[in-house]
Amino acid sequence: MLPPKDVVKIAVQMVGAIPQLIELQQTKPLASVLKDVCDAWSLPNAERYALQYADGRQTYITESNRRDIKNGSILQLTTSPDQEAERLYVGIQSKNVDVKTDSLKKLASLSQDITFAQEFINRNGLKQIYSIVEEGSDTGEMLAHTLKAFTELMEHDFVSWENLSTVFIKKIVSYVNMNAVDASIQQLSLSILENMVPTSHRVFEVVKNEVTLDRLLTHLQVTNAQLQLKAMALLIALLLSAKEDERRDMMDYLREKNIRQFIHKNIIHSSEPLGDEMAHYLYVLQSVSLNLCEHRMKTSMDPYSQEQRDLLQFLRQTAFESESEAPAGTFSTERRRSLCAKEFRKLGFMNNSNPAEDLRRAPPGLLALDNMVYFSRNTPNAYSRFVLENSSREDKHECPFARSSIQLTLILCEILHVGEPCSETAQAFYPMFFGQDHFFEELFCICIQLVNKTWKEMRATQEDFDKVMQVVREQITRTLSLKPTSLELFKTRVNALNYSEILKLRQMERLHQEEMLAVPVLELREKLKPELLELIRQQRLLHLCEGTLFRKISSRRRQDKLWYCRLSPNHKVLHYGDVEEGVQSPPIESLPEKIPVADMKMLLVGKECPHTKEKSSGKQNKDVLELAFSIVHDVEEYCLNFIAPTRYEFCLWTDGLNVLLGKEMTSERTQTDLDVLLSMELKLRLLDLENISIPDDPPPIPKPPSNLNFCCDFSHAEQ
């Protein structure tokens, strides 16, 4: 007798026939199964038929995916992929416009199936698609179906994008540049170009030259959110594929066109909520822009460069203008050199005789010099006040401007991740970045004045330099975590977070930690843990029941198909299936695929997942590894692969799946949530003990009294 896992009970239906209920033996060849089904309906030529799912994407059943069929699945008998591919191959060449349009519409639908796509491509079907695009003049429904079919066929990676002809590329570009064309065609065209650009420098050059930045900016300004998104996707693809000089020129041009202000006003602060995809593109745009500082950050100062020496002299002369006004013949060379060294010392350079030595350290390299010059040119009053104020202080209490600027530049580079590769999934950007053209320099101007303010509040000396910079780093990171929407708001908040506030925050955190480490409190924590862990388990399962929208990330690009997964309310079945863009929470009935929780064997994360082993192990995929997990079900070779949209979702899903598997929750979020809940519960229980020190050991229990005669006898009621 066959084991149960090799037999599945399914229904097979066909238009105009009574459905069949059969037991599908997974060890039996699919051709034999098809023959039995056809014989039951008296259909000849079983080889011309195939089985496919009746619901959802209607995927064809093959020997490679038949193990995915579950008990209760509904299949339908349909024309085999090779027969359907041949029919549509002929149909798209028809002279009858209606037949051709219908064939292209059907082709766009069926091309999502990998089996059909391979059959169609093997018939040189893509060549016919190229011809329709290159030679056609239609810009209506037929073209939309053609572009959709082309996109779906290319998704399977049977053909490389870089093999496309220049004529084809320029034709696609023409649809982007047209004014009187349907928005759906422009969306598909932008999406196709986005896929092409990363494949080769030749394609990049063609697209960059044909699709102007002005045209992309025009598409960004439309009210159609999807068209706006596709235009942003192509812009980001062009920026990431460009060489450093080209990227710098493109960013300079975008700055001239005030793209940041437009994004800040019309995208970030628009009435519509910001989607995950657009948030990612804004993060990448921010990262690409900040990484333009990387070259200067990693370049040491050249003491023989006249240009760089002139910048140093400019800093000195701007700060001590009145002292440097004496004619050249007034002082000897030695006296002038001594005066310059004194002024550089007042500026805060460690090596006042040769200040270039201070800027030899890279990072921050020449970026620190650029920031100092920007500060002196754009806020000359604040610059002079900073330098002259500290020149008049006692020797050990002056705040060194140059040394502080160099260290502050390094701190800002670390906080803003300057020089680090873009993440494939991150969505965290600073809204205030898009409200200012010279963001990094303006942020420096605010923070260098904060250094001086904090230095005075701490009454610091030269020996306290590292402590001051540590406090400044904390002030900046705490303020940035609040996501201020403008630099003005950042300035207000960071200045309000003065040294005394930092001390209060540190003291509160320290007292809280000490309080939580008392022996009786630790014992109470251990007693509360099981109850709170159960609460976290319930929350994780509830989150799985609500479901999450996932993306299938391909090797070419981040944006790809969307799919949704959620747990049934009785916690017995995982439902999942593909969904369209814009669908937030599809009903569980619309998700055709199922995995019984009883069939789940184990959970894989990170490098153990099969879909991460297929990818390269470069830095750009590090974030994908941190978000990847897979469910192994039935037999080990069958996995459902996930890439979580955020680390938060990764933690909640892996915890929830571990709960379903009867294992411990292992994510860092579990410990964080447990600490928060324990802290709240302990504070509530210890409210009555406020300002009372808790002893490490419980007080001794007194000895029992020598007699119990003091007890009253209430058995006799008073008369």
Automatic annotation (TrEMBL):
Keywords, sorted A to Z: Apoptosis, Phagocytosis, SH3-binding
Pfam families found in the cross-reference section: ELMO_ARM (PF11841), ELMO_CED12 (PF04727), PH_12 (PF16457)
Presence of keyword Ribosomal protein: no
Keyword GTP-binding on entry: no
Region forming the signal peptide: none
Functional description taken from the UniProt entry: Involved in cytoskeletal rearrangements required for phagocytosis of apoptotic cells and cell motility. Acts in association with DOCK1 and CRK. Was initially proposed to be required in complex with DOCK1 to activate Rac Rho small GTPases. May enhance the guanine nucleotide exchange factor (GEF) activity of DOCK1.
Protein name: ELMO3 protein
